[in-house]
Amino acid sequence: MQRLSRRVLGRASERTRLVCAPAIEGFTICHKTEVIKNTLNPVWQPFTIPVRALCNGDYDRTVKVDVYDWDRDGSHDFIGEFTTSYRELSRGQSQFNVTQLNFVVAIDFTASNGNPSQPTSLHYMNPYQMNAYAMALKAVGEIIQDYDSDKLFPAYGFGAKLPPDGKISHAFPLNSDNEKPNCVGIEGVLEAYFQSLRNVQLYGPTNFAPVIGQVARSAADVTDGSQYFVLLMITDGVISDMVQTKEAVVNASSLPMSIIIVGVGPAEFDAMEELDGDEVRVSSRGRFAERDIVQFVPFRDYIDRSGNQVLSMARLAKDVLAEIPEQLLSFMKSRGIEPRPALPASSTPPAHMRI
């Protein structure tokens, strides 16, 4: 018996899934689930399908699962799909080789954000409402943390003067532990972020290259497809080390990593658009990035004037994470890394599959 729940990245909405069995031409629907409403992480009720209906007794026959965004008028939006077989499902997820996602956070602590004790600051520590940095971190982090198995997130700050000697750092651990910069869950990252605001002096400049390089060094140690790194950078302004940052991005483009940049505040973010590389691939010293690994979004585009922050933050998470699957696949393809098969079956699967 095997229980399987499907989870997809997307906006809070209404989701349903179809389990499709092979037919003479294409697939035929053999089960349609209930609709799960108003959630980013739908979990469907388990159900049972006779093996004969699922694959006509052929344990290696392809089975397809489709996920749709349900609409009342019947024009359901296709979200995604995956294919498997009854034999693979019956073995259980623990026997599959999967890629581990490693989520890393970097937050801008430069003085241009304003004094955190003042309401005009982008880092304002309002006891009743999260600031833009915290909202962006929570929106993206709460989705991606479900794909990071250990829930331990290295979290860094850049552009601050650190106690006790006032040394400027562009990659300091938010928890003040250089040996173990990991925070437990997104709540742990938020706690360390607020604690850092109390302890460090916002300064500058806004240098991206050091923290990108730090994550890239970790990614360079595991290029076999077993791990993939996602760096979330939240910043308010113009990059001071653009030349070095472009070189860091070009170097990182050959590694298993992606970079998400969320721009907060009213500044112009032309440099971020250049790094995004959707139109023209980033280059440095005559070398072009092997892959597009940067996704940039301005936070101000997701502020809901009606006050519905739940939906607006869900849209933010959807858009910043939209390119991660393709970026991960592009790395695997560039290195010729194929999905690794499951272990051979040791016994005949049961006659009914509970999914």
TrEMBL record:
InterPro entries: C2_dom (IPR000008), C2_domain_sf (IPR035892), C2B_Copine (IPR037768), Copine (IPR045052), Copine_C (IPR010734), VWF_A (IPR002035), vWFA_dom_sf (IPR036465)
One GO cellular component term: plasma membrane
One Gene Ontology biological process: cellular response to calcium ion
Residues covered by the VWFA domain: 102-303
CDD domains: C2B_Copine, vWA_copine_like
Keyword Ligase in record: no
Source species, domain of life: Eukaryota
Keyword ATP-binding: no
Domain C2: 1-99
SMART domains named in the record: C2, VWA
Family membership: Belongs to the copine family.
Protein name: Copine-9
Species assigned in the record: Albula glossodonta
